[in-house]
Amino acid sequence: MFKFKNDIVHGALFDMDGTMFDTERLRFQTLKQASKELIGVEFSDAYLMACLGLSARSAEALAQKQYGQEVPYAEIRKRADELELETVRQYGVPIKKGLVQVLERLRKAGLRMAVATSSRRAIAEEYLINANVYKFFDVLVCGDEVEKGKPHPEIFLSAAQKLNLEPAQCFMFEDSENGIRSAYDAGGICVLFKDIKEPNASMLAHANYYFENMYDYLTELDIYSSHLEMPNLQESFPQTLNQLTVGIHGFGAIGGGYIAQILSHWDGYTRPKKIYASTRNSLYRSAVNAFGAYCIRYGQVSYDERIENMHIIDAEDLQQMHAMYVESSLIAICLAENALASEAATIAQGLYARYLAQDEQVQTPLTLLIILNKIGAKQLVLEQVRKALVELTDHAVADFILEQHYFCDTVVNRMVSKLSDKNLYRQLCIKYNIFKQYQLDDESNQIEVEDVSKLSAEQERRASEYVEDLRQNFQPSHILQHMDLILFNAEMDMPIYVENKSPLLSKMRQMILVDQISDIQLIKNRLWNGVHAMTAWYASLLGHQTIGVAMGDPRVQYYVEKLLAEVMQGLAHYLPKRKNDLTRLARSFDQSCQYAYKDPCSRVGRDPLRKLSAFERVFSSVVYNVSHGFSFEALLSGAIFGYLYLMEEEEQPIDVLLGHLKQQLQQMNLSKAHKKALYYVIQKRLNEYQNGELGMEDFMIPDQPQNTEMSCA
What family does the entry list (predicted)? Predict the structure, then answer.
């Protein structure tokens, strides 16, 4: 059931020629050619216009009236069918723009669907199959299957009956005068589209709704289409491509292993016709473009998700990057913070190229998702991009460009790791050998086709020929379809939080739109990023290589539980209205860690000094909990683990680390006593560890945290 304005709709009945397919013009041409061949006279435009929507019998009667009783109408029609089929088989069925999007939306709205066409079944089936839309329809009623053709309502009444619906419960889509009369007399909800013939007053009077084209109807339909819920992990992407091009600036772990999925699900009804993604990694670029697709592996459920329609471009090729920014409706900027300074120039050049390519008075807004894993990421991006823009143009134009577009902060909610070049190369070698072995296989092996119905001997012979032809021509590509490259290992989290700034995002399935994105950024920064980093440092110091393996260590599991409890205590106090988000994100984080067997501790724990900055993910939680009297022992240990990690993995001198600590403490909003106590505890632990007086086994967090050293200090 679907509510469209004031109508409750259960079914959709479509005329074919002129409504779904732009075949009326083609039909005019072939009928003129056929009549010229057989009677020496072309059928007139007036006669052909009068035949629109008529059954074959009615059109024949009209031909006899205008061209004489002896006119060989059946032969002319047969010859026109042959000419039309030749054209369609060579060039395909001319589909009305927007048709597939409409069919997809109506089907996903739960409507039963039928075709009610004056064409013969043989023609109708071939056209529907050729156009790849037969799959949308439950019932097909054709002109050679009814006693009375249009404008009689029989064909629509029959289609509604076959769907077990009342005519008044059905959309009836038409383009011709005879067709709309048929739908009106059947008692349906009549939707009229303009085709060759300009609708007259009678046609408009019989229509409940009139649209100039399918896209106008699609726009209305979109308003009333329900927002589809968050997709399941293994739910397939929409089959229908929309007219949008989108981009991913940074084909890294998050860009390729998360954002590409979000863009592919889009609104659940359609997906972008092209997804650009930029990278400097030539191996990744050539591999994906060669295979035409790649996969994201979800090890937790042994599922590989295939991502298609990707066009990987060279991030150093400015012409390609400019094309992405000019053509796209949305671009996700997926960059590491340390890459932003260099990439800001490319972003600015892309936006400036878009500005120059469009009419200054009609600038089409671009939606930019800022995926930087940092609180205040949008402001940082805007500052850097504006700085780069003023090197290309004056300040007024730079400000104008930035004001035209929607910059949206985000919070990523998934752990993803990217395959190393070494592992990708090994994968390529293995799959290349499989393919070469396939090419050497004996081509004489026959594929058996199971009979699903009794066939004649001739049909059996033809079927064998068809199968053999398909086998020889399809198998090379078929074998490649089972050899998709696995480029990313990802956890199962689906949603992404996005700042509610752009109208383009209103129906995106995987996006949770929020007005106050800073709250979610704060939660993510402390609850996910902070706990993740401290866990990685601790796990690495214990000798573990990956997060998933480390979570099997009771010490690590216990530590993570303590960390989450302390961070959540502070956040729940600071953001009391975000309790549900806190609980969900904490549960999601723990589940993700349990299965993060491909997530290296070295990747998660990288860049410790930045993460140990005064206002970053670790010390921000320490400061809040200390100043509010909440437990902080696990958090303090996490800071110590970060410095120990720097000593062990990066061989940083302890004096340098203590100097860094002093600088951060000076910036913290704490009393002098608290700052002094924190410094005392951390430097004491680092010195004891360096002198061999303290080992990792001494860092177990007690059940009842004690503040003895802090209070004594």
Answer: Belongs to the HAD-like hydrolase superfamily. CbbY/CbbZ/Gph/YieH family.
- Whether the Cβ atoms of residue 16 and residue 175 lie closer than 8 Å to each other: no
Q: Which one of 192, 224, 256 terminates a domain?
A: 224
Query: Would you say residue 482 has pLDDT above 80?
Result: no
Tell whether 211 and 143 lie within a shared domain. Answer: yes
Residue count (the chain): 713
Give the pairing of strands 486-490 and 496-499. Answer: unpaired
Question: Are 550 and 535 a contacting pair, CB within 8 Å?
Answer: yes
The tokens of 569 are what?
């205590």
Are residue 87 and residue 109 in the same domain, yes or no? Answer: no
Q: Do residues 661 and 522 both lie within one domain? A: yes
Q: What is the pLDDT of residue 89?
A: 86
**Angle at the Cα of 509 from the Cα atoms of 504 and 512, rounded to 5 degrees:** 80
> Same structural domain for residues 220 and 286?
no
φ, ψ for residue 178 (rounded to 5)? -65, -35
Structure letter (DSSP) for residue 145: G
CA angle, corner 165, sides to 163 and 167, nearest 5? Answer: 115
Indicate whether 292 and 388 sit together in one domain: yes
pTM, 2 dp: 0.73
Tokens standing for 363? Answer: 């600038």
Q: How many folded domains does the chain comprise?
A: 5
Q: pLDDT tens, 368-427? A: 999 987 888 999 999 999 999 999 999 999 999 999 999 999 998 888 888 887 777 777
Mind listing the pLDDT tens digit for each residue in 264-298?
999 998 899 999 999 998 888 888 887 778 999 99
Which of these, 149, 221, 217, lies nearest to 185 by C-alpha position?
Answer: 149
Q: Are residues 349 and 316 in the same domain?
A: yes
